Amino acid sequence: MHLYPAVDPIPLPAPIWLLKLLHIVTLALHFVAVEMLLGGLLLAVLLSLFRGSPQSMTAARALARRMTVVMTYVINLGVPPLLFAQVLYGRALYTSSVLIGIYWISIIGLLTLAYWLLYQFTGRLEAGKSAWWAGLGAWLLAGSIARLLSTNMTLMLRPDVWKQMYSASAMGALLPPRDATLEPRWLMMMAGGFFVGGLWMVYLGGRSTFNAEEKKFLAGFGGKVAALCGVVYLVAGLWAASVQPEAVRAGLHTDALYKFAGFAGYGWVALVAVAVLLAAAAGFARLTASWVGWVVALVALLVEIMLVVYRDGVRDLSLLAQGYNVWDRVVVTNWWVVGLFLGLFVAGLGVVGWLISVVARARKTMEGAA
Ligand code: HEM
Q1: Is residue 70 lining ligand 1, measured as CB closer than 6 Å?
Q2: Is 165 among the domain residues?
């Protein structure tokens, strides 16, 4: 029986390894931005709601002020992996997207509303007005978007339920039947938000735009949150790995191509453990040196890269077990186009780097009390 639609007769325009590499790099960056949004936003809401001290309000405003910018990165860094995933896994991903079509397309509306609420949150907080409801609303919407993405990324791996779903409704109005991997996967992304959000506060604690008390608060509070939620993140990740089908778990240890992804899984565990220890040290000793901030930022980036490599192996092996081999495609590389793309990609990264350096060099104004 053919579980997948027929392959597109147009060959792939670039080597599969290159498309996968670009997919992994851009998705890891998307995940960093997503985790900053999911964690940083709720931390800002809670800090603004429980107005514990002037420092906690400064921290809430500092996080909120950055949130609309983070959202632009979430969106812009989400588009490239979507394109690469569609090229590589289109027959699975398009099918699952159509099956949950109404929910899938609703992401655009949810995203627009979340973005508007983010501006409300930031603006109201700056103006000293009650803002928690706007921030909480934006966070709930972002969490729902994350849930829909997890739903689609798991449904694309389950061709066995597609026919049954389509027979029940061709409107795209149904959600898939229960999947053992969905809850741990989503929980992991949500817990990862607080982990990364906490590390982000430790990073901010090393910035010169805060006074000494504010820096200590940022590092102390953020470090403790990251250490605690890092443990939850670790447990959720191990849970997500443990519910994968036997063929996938075995493949990560034995398949020559995917052993690397298995190692990345161990790398992820080790890096999260290191980050938890670093965060605990920063949190309890209230370390505000800027190098501490840079180290935790680097560790957070590496954690997401490891996660994406591991996740990539899990997806390929899950699909392979159902007869979908991502490497089994006709490739006719158009090197001129690939070269042009890579040139523009590197130039784009350069422009973003330059923009960041301009912001870094801009005249600093204190974010809280001078
Ligand atoms: C508030 C906005 C967003 C949030 C909270 C969010 C969150 C997430 C989460 C949690 C996942 C992982 C799902 C899983 O595998 O379990 C994910 C994956 C993904 N997101 Fe986003 N996302 C957002 C916006 C976007 C946008 C606007 C795009 C594209 C235009 C996008 C593209 C993707 C893609 C392509 C993947 C999966 C790629 C793959 O598996 O190959 N996301 N996102």
Answers
A1: no
A2: yes
Q: What is the pLDDT of residue 370?
A: 59
pLDDT tens profile 292-318: 999 999 999 999 999 999 999 999 999
Nearest atom in ligand 1 to the alpha carbon of residue 82 is 35
276, 307 in Cβ contact below 8 A? Answer: no
Residues of the chain with pLDDT under 50: none
Q: What is the pLDDT of residue 115?
A: 98
Residue 135 domain boundaries: 16-336
Residue 295 near residue 274, CB atoms below 8 Å:
no
- Provide the pLDDT for residue 2: 72
Which atom of ligand 1 is the closest one to the Cα of 147? 10
Residue 306 lies in a domain: yes
In a domain, 32, yes or no: yes
Q: Looking at the domain assignment, is residue 134 inside a domain?
A: yes
Token couple for 304: 């997401």
Residue nearest to atom 35 of ligand 1 (CA): 82
Tell which atom from ligand 1 comes closest to the C-alpha of 141. Answer: 1
Atom of ligand 1 nearest to the CA of 185: 16
Query: For the segment 147-161, what is each residue's pLDDT rounded down to a tens digit?
Result: 999 999 999 999 999
Per the confidence metrics, is the pTM higher than 0.85?
A: yes
Distance 184 CA to ligand 1 centre (A): 16
d(CA 128, ligand 1 centre) in Å: 33
Number of domains in the chain: 1
Going from the Cα of 324 to the center of ligand 1, the distance in angstroms, rounded, reads 22
**The pLDDT value given to residue 50:** 85
Please give the pLDDT value at position 250: 96
Which of 149, 190, 309 to mutate to test ligand 1, by most ligand atoms within 8 A of the CB atom?
A: 149
